[in-house]
Automatic annotation (TrEMBL):
It comes from Paracoccus pacificus. Its main location: membrane. Signal peptide: none annotated. This is Alkane 1-monooxygenase. It comes from the Bacteria. The chain crosses the membrane at residues 36-56, 77-97, 109-127, 218-238. CDD domains: Alkane-hydroxylase (cd03512). It is a multi-pass membrane protein. InterPro entries: AlkB/XylM, FA_desaturase_dom. Pfam families: FA_desaturase.
Amino acid sequence: MSVFSAKQHRLRDALPFWLSLAVVPLAVLAARWGGFAFMLLPVFAWWIVTFLDVLLGRNEDNPDPEASDRELFWYRLITLLWFPIQAGLIFGTIWYATRTPDLGAWEKIGLFFGIGVMSGTIGINYAHELMHQRNRFERWLGDLLLASVLYSHFRTEHLLVHHSWVGTPRDAVSARYNEGFHRFFYRVLRDCPRSAWRAEAARLSRADRRVTDPRNPFWRYGALQLAMLALALAVGGWQGLLLFVWQAFVAIWQLEVTNYIEHYGLTRKHLGDGRYERVLPRHSWNADHKATNWLLINLQRHADHHVKPDRRFPVLQTYHPDEAPQLPFGYPGMTIGAMIPPLWRRWMNPKVRAWRRLHYPEVTDWAPYNRAENPMPRNAP
């Protein structure tokens, strides 16, 4: 069913997608109270949102995909405001934590673990939305958000590699069948920065430019990340710098858990000679749980995002389970499972096998897919 009436363009109709603002008072309270108050942020992001998913159920309505940017203004506004909010929380908390005598070392580590959950769950997700848009201002906001977690290369890797080669051996963040998260996380940290550099080098080469060309975005990435590190050092000294790096690492971990969930075990069929079938809704795990989609601005409608990468989040479509496989829980609940590989395999491996039987009954040997041993796609950088 397709719905998106004119009255839904109002602020009050967009407000559920502003759920991220709930983390602002939680971060302030965590800093002020100390102790185990740092758990306020992860408990909200993982447990309370999962409970709300159970309570509120699913939203299977499809909005009108032709709604204009003007009509979607109130939905988009939260993504435009988030960088100054997040920067204020990160650097304001560094300033406070490095000056107050009320927080011990473990309390500061816990506090910035919570801040990292926030910047990974919300900040990188909003950066993902912004960097897919044509508007230069929005792309710059996305770059600033990624720099605030020291993961700027994600933009290149996501746009030039992931969307082109998802579900093939070229895409490092397509999690393999039976691959535990911890092994996946190490592999992604090792492979993605050089993969992104290689993709940019290939793009520049096609235009007869060298990697040293000013158009290489890695120069911008480096400058923005150095500026963030310098600001952390100026605000909080060496301790502030370490706390900033710690929250960035936690944010990256939170992002890569999401990447792990989104495509676990789902592969595109190899057609021979390095050719793969086109990307279809079946190559992404979907979830229609209301509260998580409010917090993550419809990221869980991931199949449609791969079908139409620049489609604004309020109008992403959902699919029948026969078209796009469905997760048993929203991303926060699945995050908890991903940390325990035996539990994850018990949840997800039967679902992957059922997906294979439904869509690819003709494939009899899945070993090359499981080990990413199929040929690299033709023309992949």
